[in-house]
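Re: Re: ligand-bound prediction request (bumping)

Still looking for help on this. To restate: I need the protein modeled with S-adenosylmethionine bound, output as structure tokens. Inputs repeated here so nobody has to scroll up.
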Amino acid sequence: MAIPDAGTPPVHVGFGSMWVPKGNTRVAVEAIHAQGCRAPISRGWVDLAFCPSIPGGCPTVALMLDYDAEAAAYDATRGGVPRAEAAARALLGLVPESARTLLDIGCGTGLVTERMALARPALRVLGTDASYGMARFARQRIGAVALADARRLPLPAAAVDAVGTVWLLHLLRGAGDVRAVVSEAGRVLRPGGVFVTTVDKDAAHDVGSDIDELFAPYLRPSPSDPEELVVAYGAEAGLDVVGENRFLGHGQGRTPQRAAREVRAGHFVSRLELPGAAADDLAAALLALPEPDRPRREPEYRLLAFRRRG
Ligand SMILES: C[S@@+](CC[C@H](N)C(=O)[O-])C[C@H]1O[C@@H](n2cnc3c(N)ncnc32)[C@H](O)[C@@H]1O
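Reply:
Sorry for the wait, this slipped through. Here it is.
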């Protein structure tokens, strides 16, 4: 980042793509401004939105887990091969056998992508992800992986027969992000090609357990990936709904202990709003539940399939 030499020395605050509780960035910038210093702010790949009420801008982070930091533990904590296989099978169940190329957007470590490639040897499977840490693993698994933002894919129009996004749209909280990703999926699909995506992902986690009862007061009022919104964006992008499927979240049935740990680590940022000390309060309440090491029911996730018009 280039910082002009003139003027008072600046104080740089780098939040990268880490989870920053709401308001912390404002406090940091106000404190720097109070000292008469400038506050240059770098925008991580999760993007920062600027609040115009503070001169120089106050950033707020579009909340997302730091997937670079998460990468090494990702597979083991997201149901490993059984979950990936279930997701791959359900997704491929919506992709015609005639498809020859499939792009997995937000492929993460490539666990699901690899299962798709193994299940359909005639299908050329490509992946993209914005996190270097995640994409590094995917590259070892499937080779053809691009480090790219799903809102601007490095592919020409009508390049592939199928596009998939598994557990991506619910994470995108920036204005226009989900619409941009669905639009990109439509753009890179050839006419007649198929786009398959998870919808209502966070809602699937509500299995009516005692953990869900504790989560209820903190649920975000507006998830990013409700079916009706994704269908509307699909229609704009020339994508019509043609089917749906489900897959079991093997290993995703949480124990209160695991939920408490994950609440503290910021795993639920797309689902829960936890201002101030709320994360600690919620974690303590979770740990006080009976049978804290018994997993509650596993969730079931929904996939919607769209066909590109034309
Ligand atoms: C929950 S993981 C899902 C990974 C994989 N699809 C799976 O099911 O295991 C979400 C992935 O989306 C990626 N991601 C988030 N925002 C993105 C964006 N704007 N562009 C590309 N990838 C993104 C993250 O880096 C992460 O690897």
